[in-house]
């Protein structure tokens, strides 16, 4: 039998603490319905406030067990098709259970001090119906995600067990098996950027830690505009909600929500323990360690009914590594110019990836206090600090290979502070949660000097990029029970946050940069404030019909200053029929924008789900709208995007419009227990999704500045796409577990491509000659000192509607230039030695996108270099005792040469080759 919880119901951790669900194979013969053995006097004197609406009986019994603090033993298969009676009020345990069961043909017996056994009797109630023995599969063995297959929405979860099996090096490794989720991975940079169904960057996906938004971004080469720093050692689970949301966390979101939940004291204080924790230490093994030096940490928690505390630390050390070498032909002929310099390419492939070392340290502390009337307050602090380097490959002078040359040394740190409050009294109308938080993320970057041409050279310098986010949220959930007419859940609340960007630098600008009024770099200062009211209603009728509808109102305000240098003319002058610029030059004009604007938007959602006559199949559909105002960087960014002797310039766009999305999906869930064997279970989730975004913001190159005669290839600005930007595809997710063996499958298939079009003159200002203002013969002095006469005409300098309306397409930089390639994973595992030994193999696969691998084309600046790959990982986890575990993992067992790209040709961070590592864990 498998116990599962549906999203939004009682948390699995609380359930595990309150109830151990199983099955008993012995029934009392010829016992009347509800016949009981005498309950102990201690339990009989207890009166408990129950709040349990009518629902399927097996689920109602689980809620009863938690509220009563009992162990309830039963076979969920035998309770299928039965519905509980509502139970509201103060009752003794025995009376409460009898009321809950009502007239159902179920017998209960107290078989221990705090243990109850349920059995089902025959319809004639003449005797007990014998039940077969069914073993228990606890949530620790992998069933903590079963609710995903019973939730009529696009949601995925990564459990702590999944994370532990493979001891991830990069935070992105935790998401490898999640359908619809991609990550732009830079192996040198521990920062994480999440893409959901093709959508990422600038808050389109709400990346958060325990509800605290991680809105830091530094504009790079467009493959990651928005990163978060999270240590896998601190994570208890990850939940991915895809598409627009009318619940908490959906403000300004059009792609989805990625929530990283951190460890809690309750995770280590189960079964009445007053202290507990764990120690984990891992390392690479021998010559196959491949740059894995240390990965581990410790957690200690203590507490009682009054309160609890948790302390955690971790440290991670990684160094240079060797990439894979097999099937290198999949990388194509253009990467590192293999077709031009084959020997240098071979040397690069076989050499160690340089300057890849990083050190990450994390500390976390939480203090919780349980107050009267079911209230709780918790203070939390989480800090993660990481040192890493940026390097690029340069051809050696003798062209025999490539060297890794460092161009910056980075320290990225994130400090999260929060105070949480919850109130969940014995009242179905109140389940209140509130939070205040502050997130401070800083990147200190020491940049190398650049010896370019004289006018473009600059010395070594330091940058600091800082994002401060203040946030607050409050939500409440009210339940309304209509007995046989179903149950209504109403969730409503408010969330607010404010991002402040404050860059600093001591760079002495190059000569060419000094000609511009803004030289502080590509990350501007500014502030954006978001506030959102939301409500979501969910109606469930007898378990077979589910309706949901929500409405969100978002409002934002953006404040900041930016500017640009342009050259403007009042008239155009011709001398002897030749246009003259030098004699009548355009006037240098520094245009400044003091931006203070705000607006709001309503966004609805609606969902429907039905079970068509069988309990194991659910069909569902969901539609919704989303809205994302532009980010500070998109609006105010000005200056050179990077160093060097290149002439690129980025110009601000204070007129950038908010994005509006319309997304819908159609899918089905299958969740079936005891399908082929007793206690096995099958979960399947398949969905088709389609997300259309209006005014999608992208980095447009080859824009034209006001009064410029034509667009310049090296001028860039953010612009709104005039075409609808569409991300659509199909997701597949399957899990089958029969106890001794199991398998997990996930696959994402993306469909179609997008066109990106915007006006060449993104701010207008195209000009043309008008009527003649002056036509004269004038005397002038030649350079040799002699005089002469010439005809002069001056014309009006007028707006040019035809050129102002000219549209350019395809000039896009960024990860959205190409649709992400299909990607999937397949895991097959088996358990031995009374399931203490868990072994398995995982295949990670992508067919690639088949573009640009053998044709070096700069039709677009971006190249879709995403090669195909098939990577096999092996793992084994053995619990030698209940407290001591050893894990061995061999990643990339076949030494595949591969990398995962996200649309940026410069993000060529080859993944690790064959790597063997181990982890020891001790729990106490």
UniProtKB/TrEMBL annotation:
Pfam families: Plug, STN, TonB_dep_Rec_b-barrel. The keyword Nucleotide-binding does not apply. CDD domains: ligand_gated_channel. GO terms for cellular component: cell outer membrane. Its main location: membrane. It is found in: Cell outer membrane. InterPro entries: Beta-barrel_TonB (IPR000531), Beta-barrel_TonB_sf (IPR036942), Plug_dom (IPR012910), Plug_dom_sf (IPR037066), Secretin/TonB_short_N (IPR011662), TonB-dep_rcpt-like (IPR039426), TonB_haem/Hb_rcpt (IPR011276), TonB_Hb/transfer/lactofer_rcpt (IPR010949). Keywords: Cell outer membrane, Ion transport, Iron, Iron transport, Membrane, Receptor, Signal, TonB box, Transmembrane, Transmembrane beta strand, Transport. SMART domains: STN (SM00965). Residues 70-121 form the Secretin/TonB short N-terminal domain. PROSITE patterns: TONB_DEPENDENT_REC_3. The keyword Iron applies. Residues 1-35 form the signal peptide. One of its GO terms (molecular function) is heme transmembrane transporter activity. It is a multi-pass membrane protein. GO terms for biological process: siderophore transmembrane transport. PANTHER family: HEME_HEMOPEXIN UTILIZATION PROTEIN C (PTHR30069:SF41), TONB-DEPENDENT OUTER MEMBRANE RECEPTOR (PTHR30069). NCBIfam families: TonB-hemin (TIGR01785), TonB-hemlactrns (TIGR01786). Belongs to the TonB-dependent receptor family. This is TonB-dependent hemoglobin/transferrin/lactoferrin family receptor. It comes from Pseudomonas helleri.
């Amino acid at each position: 039998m498998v116990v599962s919880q549906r999203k939004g119901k009682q948390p699995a951790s609380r359930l595990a603490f309150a109830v151990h669900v199983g099955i008993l194979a012995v029934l009392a013969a010829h016992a009347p319905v509800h016949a009981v053995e005498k309950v102990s006097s201690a339990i009989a004197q207890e009166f408990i406030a129950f709040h349990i609406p009518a629902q399927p009986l097996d689920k109602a019994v689980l809620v009863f067990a938690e509220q009563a603090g009992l162990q309830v033993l039963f076979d969920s298969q035998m309770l299928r098709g039965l519905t509980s009676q509502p139970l509201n009020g103060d009752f003794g345990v025995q009376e409460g259970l009898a009321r809950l069961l009502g007239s159902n043909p179920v017998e209960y017996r107290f078989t221990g001090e705090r243990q109850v056994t349920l059995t089902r009797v025959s319809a004639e109630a003449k005797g007990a119906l014998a039940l077969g023995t069914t073993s228990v599969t606890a949530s620790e063995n992998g069933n903590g995600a079963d609710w995903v297959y019973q939730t009529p929405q696009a949601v995925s979860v990564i459990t702590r067990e999944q994370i532990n099996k493979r001891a991830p090096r990069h935070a992105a490794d935790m998401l490898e098996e999640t359908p619809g989720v991609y990550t732009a991975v830079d192996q040198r940079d521990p920062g994480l950027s999440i893409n959901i169904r093709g959508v990422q960057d600038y808050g389109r996906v709400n990346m958060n830690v325990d509800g605290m938004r991680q809105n830091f971004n530094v504009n790079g080469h467009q493959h990651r505009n928005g990163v978060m720093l999270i240590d896998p050692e601190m994570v208890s689970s990850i939940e991915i909600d895809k598409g627009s949301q009318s619940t908490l966390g959906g403000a300004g979101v059009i792609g989805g929500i990625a929530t990283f939940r951190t460890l809690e004291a309750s995770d280590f204080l189960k079964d009445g323990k007053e202290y507990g924790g764990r120690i984990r230490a891992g390392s690479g093994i021998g010559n196959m360690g491949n740059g894995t030096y240390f990965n581990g940490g410790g957690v200690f928690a203590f507490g009682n009914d009054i309160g609890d505390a948790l302390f955690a630390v971790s440290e991670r050390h990684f160094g240079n590594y060797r990439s894979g070498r097999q099937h290198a032909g999949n990388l194509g002929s253009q990467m590192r110019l293999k077709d031009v310099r084959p020997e240098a390419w071979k040397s690069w492939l076989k050499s160690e990836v340089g300057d890849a070392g990083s050190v990450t340290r994390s500390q976390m502390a939480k203090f919780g206090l349980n107050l009267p009337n079911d209230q709780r307050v918790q203070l939390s602090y989480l800090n993660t600090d990481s040192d890493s380097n940026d390097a690029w490959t340069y051809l050696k002078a003798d062209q025999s290979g490539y060297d890794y040359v460092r161009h910056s040394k980075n320290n990225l740190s994130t400090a999260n502070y929060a105070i949480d409050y919850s109130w969940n009294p014995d009242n179905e109308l109140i389940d209140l949660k509130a939070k205040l938080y502050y997130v401070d993320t800083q990147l200190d970057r020491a940049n190398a000097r650049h010896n370019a041409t004289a006018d473009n050279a600059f010395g070594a310098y330091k940058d600091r990029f800082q994002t401060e986010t203040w946030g607050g949220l409050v939500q409440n959930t009210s339940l309304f029970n209509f007995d046989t007419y179903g149950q209504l859940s109403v969730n409503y609340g408010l969330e607010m946050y404010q991002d402040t960007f404050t860059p600093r630098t001591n760079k002495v600008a190059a000569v060419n940069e000094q000609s511009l009024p803004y030289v502080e770099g590509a990350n501007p200062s500014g502030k954006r404030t978001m506030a959102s009211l939301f409500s979501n209603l969910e109606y469930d009728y007898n378990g077979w019909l589910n309706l949901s509808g929500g409405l969100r109102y978002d409002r934002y305000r953006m404040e900041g200053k930016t500017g640009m240098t342009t050259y403007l003319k009042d008239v155009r002058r011709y001398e002897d029929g030749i246009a003259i610029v030098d004699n009548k030059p355009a006037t240098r004009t520094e245009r400044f924008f003091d931006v203070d604007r705000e607006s709001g938007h309503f966004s609805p959602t609606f969902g429907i789900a039905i079970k068509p006559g069988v309990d194991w199949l659910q069909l569902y559909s969901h539609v919704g709208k989303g809205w994302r105002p532009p980010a500070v960087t998109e609006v105010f960014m000005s200056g050179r995007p990077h160093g060097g002797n290149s002439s690129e310039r980025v110009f601000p766009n204070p007129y950038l419009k908010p994005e509006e999305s319309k997304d819908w999906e159609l899918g089905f869930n299958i969740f079936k227990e005891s399908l082929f064997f007793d206690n096995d279970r099958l979960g399947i989730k398949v969905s088709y999704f389609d997300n259309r975004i209006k005014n999608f913001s992208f980095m447009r190159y080859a824009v034209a500045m006001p009064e410029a005669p034509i667009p310049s290839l090296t001028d860039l600005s953010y612009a709104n796409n005039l075409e609808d930007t569409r991300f659509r595809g199909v997701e597949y997710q399957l899990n089958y577990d029969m106890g001794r063996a199991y398998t997990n499958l996930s696959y994402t298939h993306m469909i179609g491509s997008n066109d990106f079009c915007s006006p060449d003159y993104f701010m207008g200002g195209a000009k043309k000659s008008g009527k003649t203002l002056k036509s004269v013969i004038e005397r002038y002095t030649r350079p040799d000192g002699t005089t002469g006469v010439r005809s002069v005409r001056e014309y009006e300098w007028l707006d040019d509607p035809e050129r102002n309306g000219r549209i350019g397409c395809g000039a896009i930089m960024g990860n959205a230039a190409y649709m992400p390639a299909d990607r999937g994973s397949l895991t097959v595992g088996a358990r031995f030695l009374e399931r203490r030994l868990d072994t398995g193999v995982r295949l990670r696969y992508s067919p690639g996108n088949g573009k640009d691998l053998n044709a070096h084309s700069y039709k677009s600046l971006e190249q879709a270099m995403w090669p195909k790959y098939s990577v096999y990982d092996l793992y084994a986890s053995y619990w030698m005792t209940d407290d001591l575990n050893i894990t061995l993992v061999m990643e990339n067992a076949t030494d595949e040469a591969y990398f995962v790209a996200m649309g940026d040709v410069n993000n060529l961070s080859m993944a690790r080759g064959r790597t063997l590592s181990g982890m020891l864990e001790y729990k106490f």
